[in-house]
Amino acid sequence: MLRTRLCEVLGIEYPVIQGGMAWVSTAELAAAVSEGGGLGIIGAGNAPPDWVREQIRKARSLTRKPFGVNVMLLSPFADEVMRVLIEERVPVVATGAGNPGKYVGALHEAGAKVIPVVGSVALAKRLERVGVDAVVAEGMESGGHIGEVTTMVLVPQVVDAVSIPVIAAGGIADGRGVAAALALGAEGVQLGTRFICAAECTVHPRVKEFIVRAKDRDTVVTGRPTGHPVRCLRNKLTRRFEELEARCASVEELEALGVGKLRAAMVEGDIEYGSVMAGQCAAMVHEIKPAGEIIRELVSQAEEVLGRLGRLVEAGR
Ligand code: TUI
């Protein structure tokens, strides 16, 4: 059985977490993942606090198991959303795109576990000192807003630097990736792109089909000059970003091009001119199936891989 310290910390069956993606990770997906024995996370993104409260209540109506909410710290509503999470006593609070240090005390008082995403060893160490319960070490293979270091290189360094559980994210789409993350010292995995293609995920069906069709070189990182690099599936929007960046357009012009584009893709299904944030492992996602089946497959494949490697070592003795 694939059980780690993280399962005890979060009260879950398998150490598999679904990334809290803006406009993608709604209550339906989060509840399905939690029902499947993992940890489902609602993505608050830039949403207002009332929407987040409604989603929390919907998730509670769909599952009695623990779930989380991801707060995107660049959101103008981050403070207000945190207050809602405290009032609603959400069991797990994940964060992205910043340092959640100032919220940790109040979240712990409300009984929440706090699991921030980090893209560097320095932030992981700083957050361990303020008492977070685990960290998600997210490599630049991920979709959406990314750091600079790959999963293969970031995870073992974060594992060496902290003693709290480390969750690996970025580039993991199947049980081989889960086994690899455990080999690097992680005690859990977080997957985003794979769960976009869960049957229960409410994104527009064209987004799921676009991911299923993606090949190895179909993602691209744009927005580096703005200080917020973002990985998306290549389309007419990313080509427009590349043109603007090639002629050194201003940060204002680049930011203006991005406004509203994530919603256009994920909700309206505009896969040409919308921002289809997805990780490099989009190319490893081949089908749409229920979240519970995805989790069972991840776990059984990881167990098979780890068993095979164990036998390989035994045979060599
Ligand atoms: O947050 C994400 N992925 C996201 S957020 C998002 S919405 C957005 N859209 C446009 C521009 C920016 C955001 C889409 N995808 N992943 C977690 C993550 N966190 N990746 C990188 C970071 C991160 C970056 C800096 C975490 C901490 C950090 O700290 C800065 C500091 O204060 O040390």
Describe this structure in words.
This protein is of the alpha/beta class and 317 residues long. The protein has a domain at 5-203: Alpha-Beta Barrel (TIM Barrel). It has 14 helices and 11 strands. The strands form 2 sheets. An 8-stranded parallel sheet has the order 1-9-8-6-5-4-3-2. A 3-stranded antiparallel sheet has the order 7-11-10, with helices on one face. Strand 5, helix 6 (121-129) and strand 6 form a beta-alpha-beta unit. Helix 3 runs parallel beside helix 4 (78-87). The longest helix is centred in the C-terminal third of the chain and has 26 residues, at 291-316. The protein is globular and about 60 Å long. The mean pLDDT is 97. Bound molecules: ligand TUI. Ligand TUI is lined by residues 22, 45, 72, 74, 96-99, 117-119, 123, 138, 144-147, 228, 230, 277.
List keywords for this structure.
8-stranded parallel beta sheet; 317 residues; globular; alpha/beta; binds ligand TUI; 15% strand
Give the topology:
Blueprint: H1 5-10, E1 16-18, H2 27-35, E2 40-43, H3 49-62, E3 67-72, H4 78-87, E4 92-96, H5 104-109, E5 113-118, H6 121-129, E6 135-138, E7 144-145, H7 151-161, E8 166-169, H8 175-183, E9 188-191, H9 193-196, H10 205-213, E10 219-222, E11 230-233, H11 236-246, H12 251-258, H13 261-266, H14 291-316
Parallel strand pairs: 1-9, 2-3, 3-4, 4-5, 5-6, 6-8, 8-9
Antiparallel strand pairs: 7-11, 10-11
Bound molecules: ligand TUI.
Ligand TUI is lined by residues 22, 45, 72, 74, 96-99, 117-119, 123, 138, 144-147, 228, 230, 277.
